[in-house]
Amino acid sequence: MNIRDFAKLLRTRWITVCVTTLAVVLGAVLYTLLTTPLYQASTRLFVSASSGGASVSDLYQGNLFSQQRVLSYAELLGGGTVAQRTIDKLKLDTTADALEKRIKATVKPNTVLIDVSVLDESPVRARDIANALSDEFVALVGELETTTPGAQADSRVVVEQRASVPTKPLVPNPVRNIGIGLGLGVLLGVGLAVLRDMLDNTIKSQQTLEEIAGSSVVGYIPLDKDIRKVPALSFVSDNSGTAEAFRKLRTNLQFLAVDNPPRVIVVTSSSPAEGKSTTAINIALALAEAEHNVVLVDGDMRRPSLDKYLDLVGSVGFSTVLSGTASLAEVLQKTEFPRLTVLTAGSIPPNPSELLGSLAARKVLDELRAQFDFVVVDSSPLLAVTDGAVLAATADGALIVARFGKTKRDHLAHAVENLNSVGASVLGAVMTMMPARGGSSYSYHYSYGGSSGDGNRDQRKEPANFHSADAETNRPDVNTTADATSPRHLTERKDGDASPVKRSLD
Ligand SMILES: Nc1ncnc2c1ncn2[C@@H]1O[C@H](COP(=O)(O)OP(=O)(O)OP(=O)(O)O)[C@@H](O)[C@H]1O
Ligand SMILES: [Mg+2]
């Protein structure tokens, strides 16, 4: 991982870093609030030798003697005798062991100074203990260093600086604690982000998608919240990033095999909710925008959605034709979009895989191929059922859809295997729901008038290109409308009168 990858990772996983840092800082604040404050009072002791002479050599010897002495004195200061004497003097309710732990004696190198500090919950008691302890130590040294009673002691300790009442507690130190929390939090957050990235098994890059799909990426569809409300883009008036992405996909499709471009295209993916149906609808619309007659077929006979997404009749369609109940011409539905006809899935059969793999299904697709410039087939997820693979084998090939950050690498690999095992060719891969720039470091950006997936949306809600059912076809020999002889149940469709089919029947 180079620095750019690392920066990308941080931009993508900034929430992990921020949440972890915040949690650790909050922990540090909590720790600070729960810590009992301890005050520190300090004294300074000065050690001198009782030198007999006043020559330079005597003074030097005396000083050397004192420097050697201070090390032993520091040990004594932290020992039990002085602690016990202090306890006795101040009548403290503690033990010598406990007090010892709160005493610290530090010797300044090459000096005859000893700093003594005492920690206590009470600032006043800390001062009293420090002063009493120093006084007791001075007395103890006097006793220890006097070899003959009445004689002058060899060494002398003076309390050079007495303790005063500390104003601020030594612990907790909020600034230090929060600073440490911040540093640890950032480190932990970055570590977690890297770990999550390493464990992330989803597809997020062109390279991964191409490697697994075994074909090139022909489209990047941005994440577009508006498409959830209105799945079909109005290409005539929509210049949003999403519409432009589908136009690029259309162009790429036409370049796939210049001499013999695929005309019957199955849109499939490994798992549910990866954007197959939405992508199929808009590929069909993009092709229709380029003056092609397109039929969109709902080959997902388990969870059909084109009828709902396009507000069409759902009760009759592909399965109706396959069961022989109606002819193809009777169930094709003209849409409000020019040059786009739809064959919905029809009522859900008990044996979709069998139906889709039948000779009848092949005949239907052949008929559609003959009638239209492009046949775009929506399908079921490949890991769940074989329907998509069966359809793809009949068609010119499949576009395999992967949802950014959701589709798992192994799932996609499995799906591609399923396609290969039935001899279906993967025409290309499409990455859907790519986060907009800023939302993710991995995102791609499209713009054509608009800046991202959310461009010209108002126009989409009321398409300017509304056409009546029997208008708009460049092929007079093609019957793309549901005619008046359609089966009666076609008229038993959704209650709304707004449907083009209903209008055409009326
Ligand atoms: N580009 C997009 N931006 C934002 N949301 C999207 C996009 N494409 C699809 N969606 C939303 O994702 C959800 C699933 O989409 P869709 O129904 O097209 O997926 P699917 O793969 O056909 O699902 P299923 O397997 O259930 O048939 C829908 O709510 C749809 O509106
Ligand atoms: Mg679908």
UniProtKB/TrEMBL annotation:
The keyword Transmembrane applies. Residues 455-475 have a biased composition (Basic and acidic residues). Residues 450-506 are annotated as: Disordered. It is a multi-pass membrane protein. It catalyses: L-tyrosyl-[protein] + ATP = O-phospho-L-tyrosyl-[protein] + ADP + H(+). Keywords: ATP-binding, Cell inner membrane, Cell membrane, Kinase, Membrane, Nucleotide-binding, Transferase, Transmembrane, Transmembrane helix, Tyrosine-protein kinase. This is non-specific protein-tyrosine kinase. Residues 263-403 form the AAA domain. It is found in: Cell inner membrane. It is an enzyme of class 2 (transferase). PANTHER family: FERRIC ENTEROBACTIN TRANSPORT PROTEIN FEPE (PTHR32309:SF13), TYROSINE-PROTEIN KINASE (PTHR32309). Its EC number is 2.7.10.2. Belongs to the etk/wzc family. Belongs to the CpsC/CapA family. Pfam families: AAA_31 (PF13614), Wzz (PF02706). Residues 3-90 form the Polysaccharide chain length determinant N-terminal domain. GO terms for molecular function: non-membrane spanning protein tyrosine kinase activity. The chain crosses the membrane at residues 12-34. InterPro entries: AAA_dom (IPR025669), Bact_polysacc_biosynth/exp (IPR050445), LPS_length_determ_N (IPR003856), P-loop_NTPase (IPR027417), Wzc-like_C (IPR005702). It comes from the Bacteria. It comes from Mycolicibacterium pallens. NCBIfam families: eps_fam. The keyword Membrane applies.
